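User: My collaborator sent over this chain with a note saying "see what the structure looks like." That's all I know about it. Can you take a look?
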Amino acid sequence: MNPLVWISNKLMRRPSCEEVNRFLVEYVEGLLEGETRDKFEAHIKSCKCCGPYLDDYRTTIKMAKTSYDVEVPEALIDHTLEFLRVRMNDA
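Assistant: Without extra context I'll predict from the sequence alone. Here is the result:
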């Protein structure tokens, strides 16, 4: 079954927290429409757990997208390689 059809069927009633978590990706990517989206958003606004969870989910996505921008100091690279060389020689 198409996941969006399944979501629409499930959301004809108030969704549970478990159901909300199953389709966070679709919501964040803007794939939920109309009444389905409205019920999802109503749950998020009224649930003391799911609202903060959605915020953390979005923050995680933003952090993951920018994590490649972090430069690793050359000294750390050198230290790690030396550590591995010593450990491999000891093995």
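A starting point for your reply to your collaborator: The mean pLDDT is 81.
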